[in-house]
Amino acid sequence: MGDGQLEQLQRFVVDAIRGGPSPVEPEHVRESARGMTPAERVEVYREQYRIRHHKNLADDYPTLAWAIGGAEPFTGLVDEYLAAHPPRTWDLQRLGADMPEFVGNHAKWGSSARACDAARLDWAFMEIFDAPDAPPFDTSVLASTPEDRWPEARIELLPALRLVAMQSALQQVRDALRAGHQPAEPPQAETRVVVWRDKACFLRHVAVDPGAYDLLARLRAGDPLGPACEAAARAAGEDAARFGERVGAWFAQWTANAWIARVHV
Amino acid sequence: MGWRQRNAIPDLGVGVGFRTPHVTHVLSQRPPMEWFEIISENYFAEGGIQRANLERLASAYRVVPHGVSLSIGGTDALDTKYLARLRDLVQRLDAPWCSDHLCFTGWGGVDVHDLLPMPMTRESLAHVVERVKRVQGTIERPFALENASSYLEWRGSTMAEHDFLAEIAERADCGILLDVNNVYVSAYNHGFDARAYVDAIPADRVAQIHVAGHTDKGGYLLDTHSAHVRDEVWDLYRRALRRAGPTSTLVEWDEDIPAWDVLAAEAERTRAVRAEALGGAAAARKEGEWVTAS
User: For chain B, what are the domain ranges?
Assistant: First the structure.
């Protein structure tokens, strides 16, 4: 073997493992002492590649698998996904990072709100699993900030928090699946869910009021509190003063849930 | 002075892998165990349960990181972000060494998450030596290369695997993680002499030994870490110990993971085999030296 052949061989075997149509060039691989052909020997790695990544994505996307009809269609979807998005990082936690977009653009499932919502919900849980920690929120800032400064305050949410809007309550399906139960058909209603990792590192979720969800989304985007509240009130078709009262109650809940990482005044 | 002495590689005794089914038991009950090995990449994140659990584990036990994704033999550039995280992990744990496999894990930006065998040539050897030096320079800790199980052999290979590994270790001045189960599996699959392999490994570079179970797939053995250690592998372990002397040993069990008591019993059996192989004083040194949580 001469210079440059190391890279050539590595390319060959990686392509073969990923499942190229006729990947085996027998001149590269020896027959085994026990009679396995070069193709059979490469097949050991091909099989492990498939087993490993299918299992990984099945663990990561239980709601999506349910939403598209179970293990068989999910296997087909994963085969397509791995062909389009081969693993490009050492981090297996990120293997399914492109799945929500892939499902959204999929010829069969892209038009299924249930499949698209399920993919985004499952991925939200994956993202919060190892998102950066945040230092404990200093609640003294709530009392020490002058009232007239609050409209310009920017609220930084917990890094391990995601917002998921869905057309049905798929979080109930996910809960059932993770508990090993057969899920019931979820209520068909616009559902807004906050998914977060709590202080004890438990992954949690809660359905929230659409107005609260909208406000959280605006705050997450970096809007100051005052304009965010006004825009959310308008979007909800509510009087600003009445909406402001609700914001107070929401803030108490958000603080209790430790969703607020910092307040920048 | 040999590599182990120069790098003050300690004999930690017998440990096990820190795996999800045992996390609650280990962290709450803190059972006797001399040390734990972790999969490095599982603890690279900046937050979350894994990192929190590792802090609790490391407060009670010695912990050594063992990687699966460095791709030391890969022709893609070494991942500097990966190395920075490994360095951070090793330093947080104050680990006496860390390890990964003599293999490549992908090409062209694709990571197949498997330990692919290197063609054993002079070109490969020079390539790996250079990369090991870079890794050791970055992490500033002793680094050990593990012999991986393999299921294919390259026609272009010009060296025996044990010579390939030994020369890399010598030229890169790194350690060796000798996995005697992997030696057995590859010897079976490729038809070489496992005992000759063990005998050819430079004993003073063996930082650690792995023992594990494997699966007979009919026609080949698969390194599944899913069963008790086989007698043939115990024999290789004894042989390795007699050459290397007291060496940190890790029981790997990563699939069909049994109850803690079963794993702890496998570790206990490893201690017994180790004591028998080493005999007398060297083995007795470890008796009663459990690392028990305070």
Answer: 3-284
Domain B3-284 has CATH 3.20.20.70: no
Is the alpha carbon torsion for B136, B139, B142, B144 positive or negative?
A: negative
**pLDDT at residue B59, as a whole number:** 98
Of A17, A36, A130, which is closest to B220 when you measure between CB atoms? A36
Residue-wise pLDDT for B79-127, tens only, equals 999 999 999 999 999 999 999 999 999 999 999 999 999 999 999 999 9
- Could you tell me if A39 lies within 8 Å of chain B, comparing CB atoms? no
Question: CB–CB of A160 and B47 under 8 A?
Answer: yes
Mutation target among A3, A5, A10, A198 for the B interface, most CBs of B within 10 A: A10
Nearest CA in chain B to A201: B49
Q: What is the ipTM of this complex?
A: 0.92
Asked if residues B257 and B21 have their Cβ atoms less than 8 Å apart, the reply is yes
> Is the CB of A6 less than 8 angstroms away from the CB of B121?
yes
Instruction: Identify the residue whose tokens are 């977009």.
Output: A101
- pLDDT attached to residue A142: 81
Regions in chain A scoring below 70 on pLDDT: 1-3, 20-26
Are residues A48 and B114, on separate chains, in Cβ contact within 8 Å? yes
Domains of chain A, earliest start first = 1-130 (no CATH), 132-265 (3.90.930)
pTM of the model as a whole: 0.92
